[in-house]
Amino acid sequence: MPPREWAVDGLVPFKSVTLFSGDGGSGKSTLALQLCCATVLGRSWLGRETRAGRAAYVSCEDDQGELHRRLDAICGAENWGIGDLSGLELFDRVGLDSAIMYRGKGFGEVEESPWWIGFSNWVVENQPGLIVLDSLYDFYGNFSQLDMGTARMFMGRLRELAKDSGCAIMVLWHPSKSGLESGDGTSGNVAFRNASRSMLYLEKDRDGGLDAPLTLKGKKSNYGPAAEEVLVRWENGRFVPVVQTGSESGALGGISRRNAETAFLDALDAATAQGRPVSHSKGANFAPKIFVGMPQSAGFKIYDLNRAMERLFANGLIEVGQVGTYASNRHPKMGLRRKVSSSQDGGQSDV
């Protein structure tokens, strides 16, 4: 049997459609441009191998001048020559009608737009290995976002072009408010996601501050195992993968993990002694968010302390329980605390 082909190993399948979702301003466009550069130059993207070939970026959100500035920053940071990107074609569609289909004459019928027919012919003639469309609803047109039938037809047109021309198509997508809150990154209806073969989601750490990395998550993968999460951070005009604290193998990794856990426990002890209850849930008193400003944190970032907290939970060293009482009514204060065995407190697990 022929082997599975990937535009990005394990993340973006070849001859298929991938949705790439993320909050506005999170960096999807820059990451997609980085992928175009990596494809044209035959380089890796966030540590994963790419399939070398031509690429096309069709933008309805940023004009060609902005795209050129981003490409210049990417190439400068990577020591690539921007003149070597001759295999990358930029299509500036800002302010233009870029819907790929319109309503047909008959009930429920749709017709491909002249622009889409012309672009499809260009794709067949020039054979790019990767096409990026930025972003979905600019190409979807004025159809109802909740119309599942139309959404399936829209995705069907994209899949047909990817299959017939032999390329990977990546469509950038803005999640709805509910998609952000749930963390699934979706918007409109599930037909878009269901009709894609893979979906990526770029998620911000909303409690981590400006220096916190973003997480690239594989939300769907029909053609392979669920992809591991990739932490990325902004550096010199482009994103680079982050080596997670404790991800090193051997003794070094063990020391890093223990240090983060020790810092977390030291900060927890200090907060408890000060009568400042902290929580494992994200909010005003989220433990890693409080601890990062304390001297006991030993310089670890919020994401390091968050992962340390999860390991401590998994190892049974911390728990949620009573951490004191309110002076006014003696009602119990609940929060995060060290887990104390029954042999130490006469049968009660308490601080």
Structure summarized in a few sentences:
The protein is an alpha/beta fold and 351 residues long. The chain is built from eleven helices and 15 strands.
Separation of termini? 61 Å
> What characteristic shape results from the CA principal axes?
elongated
| Sheet with most strands | 9 strands, mixed
Please trace the helix and strand order, writing H or E for each element.
EEEHEHEEEHEHHEHHEEEEHHHEEH
Query: What is the CATH class designation of the largest domain?
Result: Alpha Beta
Helix percentage range: 25-40%
CATH H-tier superfamily of the largest domain: P-loop containing nucleotide triphosphate hydrolases
Tally of distinct domains: 2
Mean pLDDT score: 86
Give an overview of the whole structure:
This protein has 351 residues and is of the alpha/beta class. It has 2 domains: 6-241, P-loop containing nucleotide triphosphate hydrolases (Rossmann fold, 3-Layer(aba) Sandwich); 250-345, Arc Repressor Mutant, subunit A (Orthogonal Bundle). 35% of the residues lie in helices and 22% in strands. The chain has helices at 28-41, 64-78, 114-126, 136-140, 148-165, 177-182, 190-195, 250-273, 287-291, 302-314, 342-345; strands at residues 6-8, 12-13, 17-22, 55-59, 88-92, 101-103, 110-112, 130-134, 168-173, 198-203, 214-221, 230-235, 238-241, 318-325, 332-338. The strands form 4 sheets. The chain has a 9-stranded mixed beta sheet. It has a two-stranded antiparallel sheet with strand order 1-2. Strands 6-7 form a two-stranded antiparallel ribbon. Helix 8 crosses helix 10 (302-314). The termini are far apart.
